[in-house]
Amino acid sequence: MVVGRDKCGEQRLVSLPLSRIRVIMKSSPEVSSINQEALVLTAKATELFVQYLATYSYRHGSGKEKKALTYHDLSNTAEESETFQFLADILPKKILASKYLKMLKEQKQEEEEEEENSNDDESDEAES
């Protein structure tokens, strides 16, 4: 295991800043106090998770050819892997703004057509 060093040169078990993790944990209304051991374990678990996500994305992505991990690799992993599916909203696939606007326009047209069809069905029922 790689052990980092803090500002005073002492060994650290985690690389992530514990103060930031504490702030994130305290942002939850259910959390009143945080034990130092729980904080360190959460930091270590987070590091291991990020490492696993990056390794998995690198191995299963196109970055291997370029010897680089790309955002595209991460978003593909979130979308295609059942294990990482919960990250799909956080790591969405990048699309061009023009393509997104076109999708919105098509969606709006579909909704309008559905609304017209439901109004037609209601008027047909009223005539019967």
TrEMBL record:
Subcellular location: Nucleus
Record-level Gene Ontology MF annotations: DNA binding; nucleotidyltransferase activity; protein heterodimerization activity
Record region (Disordered): 105-128
Segments forming domain Transcription factor CBF/NF-Y/archaeal histone: 15-75
SUPFAM superfamilies hit by this protein: Histone-fold
Top-level taxon of the source organism: Eukaryota
Keywords for this protein: Acetylation, Coiled coil, DNA-binding, Nucleotidyltransferase, Nucleus, Phosphoprotein, Transferase
InterPro entries registered for this protein in UniProt: CBFA_NFYB_domain, Histone-fold, Transcr_DNA_Rep_Reg
Cellular-component GO terms for this entry: CHRAC
Pfam families: CBFD_NFYB_HMF
Protein name as annotated: Chromatin accessibility complex protein 1
UniProt source species: Myotis lucifugus (Little brown bat)
Name of the gene: CHRAC1
